[in-house]
Amino acid sequence: MPEKSVEKIKCLIIGSGPAGYTAAIYAARANLFPVLYTGKEPGGQLTITNDVENYPGYPDGIMGPQMMEDFKNQAIRFGTDIRYELIEKVDFSATPHKIWSETGHEIHADAVIIATGASAKWLGLESEQKLMNKGVSACAVCDGFFFKGQEVAIVGAGDTAAEEATYLAKLCKKVHLLVRRNEMRASKIMQERVMKTANLEVHWNTVTEEILGEDGVEGVRIKNTETGKTEILTVTGFFVAIGHKPSTDLFEGWIDMDENKYIKALPGRTFTNVDGVFVCGDAQDHIYRQAVTAAGTGCMAALDAERYLSDKGII
Ligand code: NDP
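Above: the input record for the complex with NDP. Below: its predicted structure, written as tokens.
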């Protein structure tokens, strides 16, 4: 059997959202010859987003997937080597850092930029697991179409829930928004849109007890925590929009993280506690979580990596 070869590179970027691609654009233009591993969701969270109206430079808005295609093409234009694979294992105990892809390919990288982002959180109900992709979804934009003309429920109270609830209301007969407190944390403008949508009913102080159905969603049992009253809503779709979890499991034990597993960066910079490892985007940001802030930190990570490599005499 041929011996597995080790690939030696200057700069590895893990993740393909706005942070990863922006880091790639800057790193490629700085002659770091970056290799970018996309992970299992190429393009990241924006590929499951509808209209992006707040990214500067797109006065008429843009669809999330198209925006990520533009980012990717810009990274390719400057020579980024993009690989549609997952990174499965890292060893940050010494430089150059060791990284293995899901096919067992071993890479030694002088600088590593982590841009793995975050993914959707779930309620944790057994019925939610059982009915996953059988009427339960964490992405209204991806799956809303399947519930055209039907009645659905969505849980959450942030901007995502508000945005997805109004999106679903355009497709569905009726949308029930389940809010666990007596107020929403979504921005005022998003809340106004929710309140103005005729076929969208907000259920305050409401928790989901069970999603009903065997092979598909048939209803949801909800409980009002003020009155203690339970009720069954007859719905065929159940959407979860309660926030996100950083995709950082891969780095556990190798790098400093906060209690929610967001990777810690030096304040105002992208340096982590590990020499030669940088972090950007939602993997380190639980506050802003915007495409434009992710892109901004992606740029910072590439500049920090470039200076690091230059200081070490590698470039
Ligand atoms: P958030 O963390 O802002 O909100 C999560 C919501 O889910 C909270 O309201 C929370 O309730 C609720 N929640 C959490 N766990 C449960 C549970 N077990 N049961 C019921 N409800 C639960 O996440 P988002 O994804 O909404 O937003 C993330 C970030 O992205 C925010 O900064 C947001 O502003 C931004 N964003 C911006 C958009 C835009 O500008 N177009 C679009 C989408 C997101 P509680 O309030 O009670 O804690």
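Notes for the reader.
Residues 141 and 167 are 7 Å apart (CA to CA).
The chain has seven helices and 19 strands.
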